[in-house]
Every structure is written in structure tokens, then in C-alpha cells.
Amino acid sequence: MTQQRLKGRIALVTGASQGIGHAIALAFAREGANIVVTARNESRLRALAQEAETLGVQALAAPADIGIETEINGVAKAAIAKFGGVDILVNNAAIIHSRIPVSEFDTQLFRDVLNVNLMGTFLITKALLPNMIERSADGTRGNIINISSIGGRKGAAGRSAYRITKSGLISFTESLAAEVKQHGIDVNAICPGGTDTEGYRDAFNTSGKSDNPKLMDPNEIAQVAVFLASDASSAVTGAAIDAFGATNPLFG
Questions:
Q1: Distance from CA of residue 51 to its chain's centroid?
Q2: What's the predicted TM-score (pTM) here?
Q3: Is the pLDDT of residue 1 over 60?
């Protein structure tokens, strides 16, 4: 039985059809939050929304491509129309690419990674901020959680586009936190280490934990997100929390 730490709050999670986003959306629902979930895969989103509603909350599936501004704005409008606004925003949607040297990197793919991972985060945040600020004026605490990565901490061969975006998310987190704290909104990032997600498996042609037992379960990251979204994290803003698990470089 959960503590319902997010009871009555409204959370929007991008990239929610699978992996970390899916785990966060369900964890929020278990804690009593009504959820808006978005991603490109409509059938998976609707299944997720139905599962969330069995937990006693309301859920809205809002399919969209986070790389397209008009669709992003549509998600924001749908969330406001359904629930009156959003208190918690989780920017999780991302393109993960395999190891590709810069000299061989397809230019359009590089642009797509930057567009989804960075511009998509900026655009959905910009679209929702006025509503979040308005809601916080009534005493409702706001939270924005950006999903960065262990890859946001340093570069690596073949990982240029992805790691540029994840590093950028950390800086965006700090900059935005400095802007909106005065409005009662806290902004933090989570930097997961290796996590057994569908995107990770596809990008690296692996079977996940069966190939690498050090990989974390997405639910481990979801619990960090619950903490950051809850009142327990009221002293934390502008932080990038390393959640590396057994893939922590300290362990060699």
C-alpha cells in the first residue's frame, strides 16, 4: 500500500509508452497522481492509461511526436482542457542511437536527436510553464523533472549526439530552476546509469539484463522521480541526481 504522496496532483510524462517513462507514469499513478501520458505509440499509451485507471486515478493518453511543435502544443492544450493544468512535468522522451563515429554520423539523425531530446523538452516546458506558474500562485507546488543520463556527465566515442543532449539537459535544468523557484516550481534532473529499457536494447542490440546484470530496472529510476515530485524533496532544486546503480564508474 503506497503513501499516496502525489494524491490529487496532475503529472504529464513524455516518452511514456515504454521504459523509464512508462515506469514513472505508473509509479505516479500508484501515488495518487492523475496522469497525462504522451509518446508516438498510441496503442501502448492507451493500454498504459487503462492500467493507471485501475489504480483509482484519472489518465489521459495524448499521442504525439515530441519532435513536432504543433503536436507538443496539442498535448499541452489537451492536458489543460482535461485537468485544468499540470503540476508535475517529466521530460523523458528521447532518441537513443547506437555507437556512431562523428565522421559517419547521418546529419539528419544528428538533427533529430537534438530536436527531440533538447528542443522537445524546451518546447513542452515552455508550453506548460504559464499554466504551472498560475497554479503555483494558489499554493500548488510545481515540479519539473528532466531525465538526463550518466552520459550527460562526460562524452564517449560514438555517442556524440546523445551525450550532447543529455549534458544540455543538465544545464537547462539549472538555468530553469534559477528562473522559476520564485514561482514555487522546483526543477531537477535525474541521470540514470545503464537501465534495461526497450530503447537501450534496440540501440545496443542486447537482451538487456540477461546480457548485463548490472543494468537497473526502470522502476528504480521511477522511485527517484517520485521523491523529486513529492513534498519530501522541497529542499532540492537545480540538482542533477546521479542514479547509476551498479554501472557507477566508482565500481570500475
A1: 19
A2: 0.96
A3: no
